[in-house]
Amino acid sequence: MVMSVLEKQSATIDDVLAAKIEQREARIGVVGLGYVGLPLALLFTEQSFRITGFDVDQKKVDVLAKGKSYMVRIPETDIQAAQERGFSATSDYACVSAMDAVIICVPTPLTEHHEPDLSFIRRTAEAIAPHLRSGQLIVLESTTYPGTTEELLIPVLEKNPLGLKAARNGRASDNEFYVAFSPEREDPGNDSVARRDIPKVVGGLNPAATELASKLYSSIFNRTVPVSGPAAAEMTKLLENIYRCVNIALVNELKLLCMRMGIDIWEVIEAASTKPFGFHPFYPGPGLGGHCIPIDPFYLSWRAKEYDFHTRFIELAGEINLAMPYHVVSSTAAALNGQRKTLNGAKVLILGVAYKKDIDDLRESPALTIIELLRKEGATVRYNDPYFAYVGHGRKYDLHMTNTPLTDLDLYDCVIIVTDHSDYDYERIVRESRLVVDTRNATRGIRAAHIVRC
Ligand SMILES: NC(=O)c1ccc[n+]([C@@H]2O[C@H](COP(=O)([O-])OP(=O)(O)OC[C@H]3O[C@@H](n4cnc5c(N)ncnc54)[C@H](O)[C@@H]3O)[C@@H](O)[C@H]2O)c1
Q: pTM of whole model > 0.85?
């Protein structure tokens, strides 16, 4: 089929790419083999595409080359099966020229001053540009503010030695390449929806780019959702995450009120969830974590300032959610006080440092802030988490702690459940501990005077 398309005099470069995708002959590069990029690369290999993964982290490239995995939820057998279908990883961007499509999944964190840090996207574009060729499709998946694809990614890509330009109108000519934005909707730890069933939003710079990117993603997702352009696709992702951030802040605030009023917020949410329309449950917790919800909304509020616009919901939600780890610490101090003890000098065990249950991701985890705050108050802190043997240092923390076994719980003055991993036996934890502070309602159904839910 590809040959027959190529043989046609009238075949355009997008006909050729479309045919290669259909025949699984398109070579696809995935840049950034992290929580988003590696699973995406494996999905494509399952559909018999030959995938090349690019990462600047040589350690990751080496681990993959040995057929091993660095993610708990990806077994090494998956990596080995992918290798048999032609998957390889490299840190050498020269291989980009052999790709028909390149999908970028690099980090988009915030700087220390809570401003977007687009340096990873910029550096990736600078690395790709020397190896661009006409007719290639470049897709950005990293979450970012509306305008990034057109104002940052494309101008850097267009500084390529061949003078290639992004196709803006109609079909690409011989000296053009295609560009699209397609947000990632990965929800680590959520097994209730098959990855294939998550619709993929796609916004190309021109209709042909949207069509090609949709065709590419249709091979691994059951449904694609084309939108008018990259900015609409970028904004779609932010709306989804801001919706979560604001609603979590709402229940966190109502939890504080309910605590004062002696009402159980969890019981209220469960009851409200029986409404078959117009209500979607969100749950309170010790604070936001992960690479998305605590960060992405601030990409939009930063961008909005350029338009003299203040995104008040985002700011307010941020304020409430950021206060939650402080609330956990003051609740712990009050609970210890109830047993005539002080936080200063207390021995505290944190259960769960991952930012949510059953995953191996620490980024922005509220547990890290809680540990630092407890230490500042003079507590001796240890942690247990089956997903982390060691917690070293990151952008915002410097802990250097090793995992403590879940034994001798009575030696601690307080056990704080920060992450409600499924592996924990909560009955036993309550039975053997002197005081339990539960930030996740993990001890629901267990009756004991020494449980404090906060
Ligand atoms: N993790 C999630 O659940 C999730 C969900 C939806 C969207 N996202 C978004 O996806 C993007 C990626 O997130 P992630 O969680 O996969 O990040 P990650 O940190 O797990 O992975 C990013 C990878 O990119 C690599 N990298 C950095 N700079 C590079 C460069 N110049 N060239 C090649 N590789 C480079 C890093 O070494 C790392 O392996 C972010 O924008 C994030 O907001 C993440």
A: yes
